[in-house]
Specification:
By secondary structure, the protein is α+β, with helices and mostly antiparallel strands. It is 20% helix and 23% strand.
């Protein structure tokens, strides 16, 4: 998610800002959280620090860049959610709260309706402080005077003032001449005066398709207009609008987006001035109008995304993830994780909210046996091992890595290549050890620029001989966790099974051990690894393979 280039730039910026601040302060160390810092701690902004002093101190103790340079997306979306506890919200509309159109250090604002609207979008406005983001959203969303702009690619409603060209019904039946909207089409129209006896209600025909034939389609209504106005979706345009299963209401300037799974087939998008489900008369005659922009789109994502998606601790394009409880927790905080895709931010939230248990192969003492081919791995819940990384293994220097998991590779020979190169792979470090956990690595790698799918992946190669066990360590380059695929290949086929079974009785036992001991220091049958001499490696092969052959 955060590449070596990102980390390098961040370190350079941090070092520069520290030197500038130190020079300006004549050698004094700048404070962690700046006095008078503003801005939400959970939203990025261009100034250093954030409004919640406690959270600000915690974040900047972890990464001083956030209080010296600016409160960027890494501070807001990665560090703050992990370290800070959001205080309970302050009720909206209290007389002692500050005005909604001015920045103030206290949470909430005095206009209850506007306050609730803002805090639904930015919860910290009601729990931390009313910062510039809160004021901006209030200015845009709590006004009824805004006018949406028609996109250049949008369709246009051809209707003049004083006429009604697209009413829902004609003589009690659906209007057969209604304009049709395709999936995702954007239309720009006007609500205006018709005559004293007629309300301007615009209608459009939509045929919702169902490519997977499950009799459901996920429909999304996107609607922007000068308030008050609403967009409703109905199957019968002549029926009361209250029958609409889904509608989008505009009470301010921010577009309304509503989603619902419906049956495929013919539907009608109805636009009217007023508050759903009651249309209102346009108050002025020709010369003014109420512009609106609408979009109706649909897809096949109507199954519950929680419990059916990919790994909760790895990013994927589909919404939701495979663990229902964790998925529900994440989507309660960030609904887009269940509506659009399970991206890196959803993974970060899952790691924070769901407290994954460490995997069984979290330690070098309990590696997971693997062979050639593709193996899945997950760093969710894993902890860092104590083994230091040799100097020169890491792109940015240093000798420590983040969480890691371990694998045991045996019965292989030739040149072994192990790689995490795969689309969406996290920033990994790979190390290989021969037999023992505390031995020096026989190979290591951090970033692999040759991997076009992800240059933050790793690839190592090393020679292997039959009868030797190799430990593969997959580690995170930093604090990022997630899952991926471990690809293992060799220049030679796998070793014949159970090489230590020298008398071919399907068991490695005392008879095989006696063969090795009797031939010690000589070439011959006890030379299991093919080195030309019976030695300690062959004894290790006997002991590690002791018992029945697999």
């Amino acid at each position: 998610m955060y590449s070596p280039i990102f980390r390098t730039i961040r370190c350079v910026l941090l070092a520069t800002t520290i030197l500038v601040a130190a020079d300006a302060a004549q050698g004094q160390t700048p404070p962690l959280c700046p006095d008078g810092a503003t801005g939400s701690c959970t939203l990025p902004h261009s100034t250093p620090g954030c409004a919640d002093a406690t959270c600000c101190e915690l974040v900047c103790a972890f990464d001083a860049f956030c209080c010296i340079a600016n409160w960027d997306a890494y501070c807001a979306y990665v560090i703050a959610p992990s370290l800070c506890t959001t205080p309970p919200p302050v009720p909206c509309g209290q007389p002692s709260s500050g005005p909604c159109d001015q920045v103030h250090a206290t949470p909430s604002c005095s206009d209850a309706t506007c306050c609730e609207y803002v805090c639904t979008a930015i919860p910290t406005c009601c729990s931390v402080g009313w910062d510039t983001q809160c004021v901006t959203l209030a200015a845009n969303g709590c006004s009824s005077q805004c006018d949406p702009v028609c996109p250049s690619s949008s369709l246009a409603e051809s209707e003049l003032c004083g006429e009604q060209a697209n009413p829902p019904c004609l003589a009690g039946v659906p209007n057969p001449a209604l304009q049709s909207l395709g999936n995702g089409s954007i239309l720009c129209g006007k609500l205006q005066w018709v005559n004293p006896e007629t309300l301007d209600i615009d209608a459009y025909r939509v045929v919702v398709t169902d490519p997977n034939d499950d009799l459901l389609a996920r429909v999304t209504l996107s609607f922007a207009a000068k308030a008050p106005a609403f967009l409703a979706l109905v199957t019968d345009p002549c029926a009361p609008l209250a029958s609409a299963p889904i509608h989008a209401q505009i009470d301010g300037c921010v577009p309304s987006v509503q989603t619902l799974c419906v049956q495929p087939g013919a539907w009608y998008a109805i636009v009217a001035r007023g508050t759903f489900p009651t249309p209102e008369e346009f108050p002025e005659q020709c010369g003014s109008f109420q512009r609106y922009v609408l979009q109706v789109s649909w897809n096949d994502q109507c199954t519950d995304p929680c419990g059916t998606g990919g790994d909760c601790y790895g990013p994927h394009l589909e919404p939701g993830c495979d663990t229902p409880a964790c998925c529900s927790q994440v989507c309660a905080v960030d609904p887009l994780c269940c509506e659009k895709s399970w991206d890196e931010l959803c993974v970060e939230r899952a790691l924070t909210l769901c407290n994954p248990t460490p995997p069984l192969n979290d330690s070098c003492q309990t590696p997971r046996p693997i062979g050639l081919g593709s193996q899945s791995y997950s760093l969710a819940g894993a902890t860092p091992s104590t083994q230091a990384v040799p100097s020169g293994c890491l792109t940015l220097g240093g000798t420590s890595v983040g969480a890691d998991v371990w694998f045991a590779l045996s019965e292989v020979e030739g040149t072994i290549t192990v790689s995490t190169c795969a689309p969406g792979s996290i920033d990994t470090v790979l190390l290989a050890y021969e037999t023992l956990c505390d031995s020096a690595p026989v190979a290591c790698d951090d970033d692999n620029p040759q991997c076009s799918a992800n240059s933050n992946s790793s690839t190592i190669s090393f020679p292997a001989v039959c009868g030797t066990r190799y430990l593969i360590r997959v580690a995170s380059a930093g604090s990022q966790a997630g899952s991926g695929a471990l690809l293992v290949s060799s220049t030679l086929p796998p070793c014949p099974p159970c090489l230590a079974d020298l008398n071919l009785d399907e068991t490695v036992d005392g008879i095989d051990l006696s063969v090795v001991l009797s031939g010690w220091g000589l070439p011959g049958q006890g030379d299991i690894d093919g080195s030309g001499m019976v030695d300690g490696f062959d004894l290790t092969a006997i002991l590690s393979g002791w018992g029945d052959c697999p």
